[in-house]
Amino acid sequence: MTGPWWREAVTYEVYVRSFADSDGDGLGDLPGLRSRLPYLAGLGVDAVWVTPFYPSPDHDAGYDVTEHRAVDPRLGTLADVDGLIGDAHRLGLRVLVDLVLNHVSSEHQWFVSARAAGPGSAERARFHVRPGLGPGRAEPPTNWPSIFGGSAWAPFGDGDWYLHLFDTEQPDLRHEHPDVAADALATIRFWLDRGVDGVRFDAAGSLSKDPGYPDLPEGWRPGDPAPYSDRNEVHEIYRRWARELASYPGDRLGVAETWGGPEVLAPYLRPDELGQAFAMDPLYWPLRAQLWRDGVDALLAATGRHGRLPAWVHGSHDVRRAADRWGPHGARAVLLMMLALPGAVYLYAGDELGLPEVTLADEAIRDPVFRRSGGAERGRDGARVPLPWTGESVPYGFGPTGSTPWLPQPTDWGEVSVARQRDDPGSALALTRAALALRGEWWRDRPAELTWRDAPAECLAFRRGHRGPTCLVNLGDVPVDWRPYGRRLLLASMPKVEEKLPARSAAWLA
């Protein structure tokens, strides 16, 4: 392996509430995850990213935190964290924790004190607080929208309003405040001291806001530059945190949850900042060959300027399932393509099973996006339904027999369970295991430069460097002959491939 361990690592995102429930209360927990670590080691991933397990009233499934240096008793204990890290390390797995430092829960003691203290108080200075506009200061201070829908401002009830880029129960912190800066650093140190191998920084671009709080211009659309996202000032925060990560042994990783194109993520990867920033744009790319080729080139160029590689994101808890976004066959093809590209890859729990997006009844949805949009947006819970491990009925091995998962599982969930796929050579699980096993031999640590080969319409063919295997991706509607690209078929995303590579599939060829 060349460079730090994370340079081309495959990291598996565990949405802890939906992974494995050890005690039957319906919520996945740390002991449940710990019991399934051998499955992840057998899958062949390098690291596990664990979503928040901190104390929370769960208005946003754990991303509304009341205490960043503790464990929600419903999900385990600090001893469970220590045991999880120890077991993972013995199995050759690294562990990343998810730190939510942009905001806290409205039940966090700081915000409880701020609500009680009144306008102009020192307690409110830790948050973004502005007087309202209009008669009685009854209108929001700016036209900033919440990412979850509606205004990003909520009233205290005394003329002051507080900023919440997400839900009203998630007030944003002012990182310019010395208390906030010191507490964030203490949190990072706390988890590094416990032995975690890296930190995923939630809402990475939102930590710095324009102190003038200007209105968004007329015609602004989501994705346009905004005075509360990816500002130059945010990078001083990450430089400070990067120095802390570098002070620990073992190449501790800092990865930014960035949303945007190459120009957005590249600044986070400067030599004195973070090791990785999520390449999220591909999540939304349709299966069009030229679009993928141009996009891959742009991301490689942007990250390469700082000596880094992309962190390709195949799926996450914030978007629809891969099998829904690209179709079941397309998701398998994109997986092989991403695993062949230079860089790291992030896989979302359940996508190795090809799980479909689940359509939930209105009354079952917990995501605040659904509520804040008035039902116009279904939210993200369709990708968060607890995993099926085995069995013929609910909870399909997610929890003890007779328990009820926090989100309802489909009645046919057993058909796509780990148990059903484990011995099926044509399953999504079998493909993922085979790809991860072969990746180390054929792709990992090869040259970062791509050599594009001539390919039929709506196909991509590339090598890393000028020798070695070829990845052929057929995004078109007709089969293509793979034999001009290699003498041997190492692996294909579709079973029983002969001379022709089917539509919406990929192959590794030597």
From TrEMBL:
<comment type="similarity">
    <text>Belongs to the glycosyl hydrolase 13 family.</text>
</comment>
<dbReference type="Pfam" id="PF00128">
    <property type="entry name" value="Alpha-amylase"/>
</dbReference>
<feature type="domain" description="Glycosyl hydrolase family 13 catalytic">
    <location>
        <begin position="13"/>
        <end position="384"/>
    </location>
</feature>
<dbReference type="GO" id="GO:0004556">
    <property type="term" value="F:alpha-amylase activity"/>
</dbReference>
<dbReference type="InterPro" id="IPR017853">
    <property type="entry name" value="GH"/>
</dbReference>
<dbReference type="InterPro" id="IPR006047">
    <property type="entry name" value="GH13_cat_dom"/>
</dbReference>
<protein>
    <submittedName>
        <fullName>Alpha-glucosidase</fullName>
    </submittedName>
</protein>
<dbReference type="GO" id="GO:0009313">
    <property type="term" value="P:oligosaccharide catabolic process"/>
</dbReference>
<dbReference type="InterPro" id="IPR045857">
    <property type="entry name" value="O16G_dom_2"/>
</dbReference>
